[in-house]
Amino acid sequence: MTLTVPEDDLRELEQQVRRALAAGDPRGLTVLGYGEVTLVLALETERGAFACKRLPVFDSRKRYEAYGRTLGQYTDRLAAAGVHVAETRLWDTALPPGKTVGYCVQETLPVKRLVSHLLHTEGRDWAEDFFARFLGTVHGAVSPSLGLDAQASNWIDLDGDLVYLDVTSPLMRDARGRELLDVRLFFTSLPLLLRDAVRIAMAKSIFDKFYTPRGVVLDFLGNLHKEKLAALVPGFLEQANARIEPALTAEEVAEYYKGDAAMWELIQRLRKADRAWHLKIRRRPYPFLLPPDVDR
Fold it and tell me: Which domain holds residue 51?
């Protein structure tokens, strides 16, 4: 079944975003969530409710179309590897001069079934069952050429079926270990003079972990600290270490999260500085809606 979203509603949503950018204020938008790079907006229509993830602006149509091909390949490979991916439609509209803005659109799914929510509300038996299913999915899918950003907020549990939500950063590498994702695009929210330096310094640490089951599980467990779910880490470590070598420790998980949080906090400070420069020095709108400070 093909996901159908009214074009007029999507165009109006993009107009609302542009007005918010011009005002430097997201009020008027219904924000479902902020990623590290993009934000997810709610769209209510006569045909249903949708979650719309706005992508960074593409400076050419060619670049956007290349992204679309990579995204399609990624979702196909995940499905072939046994990952149930939420049906996703890519929608776009033109921006002057010659630019394109895209959205990844999915049907809105029940928030209370997000794994990050269920780990708070369900008991330990449910958590252990989920984590066993999670480990099986990760070990069946992740390889040196196919990655997964598998933190708890990227999954929803529908009648015992784990559905993966966040496909906007297609994690695939070629035979030489190079990202197929247009990595530069996802650093465009940084100050222009710092983009290449930050990308070169940080891209490897950001992406490497997603291409081994051990790295994916380490990232999942580390992010439980952000979700205020650190009490689950010891039990999950017992399950994980039955399948992972070398074994993970609680100390390694905590240290990993500390470093990851510090990296993203630095990136956010750089973005805020760039926003201030746009607004106060250049006297022009800042082209991104930044997330509020995260309690890490």
Answer: 8-107
d(CA 286, CA 19): 12
Closest C-alpha among 10, 58, 54 to residue 33 = 54
Q: Can you read off the two tokens belonging to residue 286?
A: 């800042």
Q: How far is CA 121 from CA 113, 117, 128, 155, 164, in A?
A: 10, 7, 13, 15, 20
Phi, psi for 293 (deg, rounded to 5): -60, 135
**Contacts of 137 by beta carbon, 8 Å cutoff, 6+ apart:** 82, 83, 162
CA distance 13 to 236: 41
CA angle 97, 99, 102 (to 5 degrees): 150
DSSP assigned state of 160: T
Q: Determine if the pTM surpasses 0.85.
A: yes
Domain-embedded: residue 12: yes
Q: Residue 272 is which amino acid?
A: K
pLDDT tens-digit map of 229-244: 999 999 999 999 999 9
Answer yes or no: do 132 and 226 share one domain.
Answer: yes
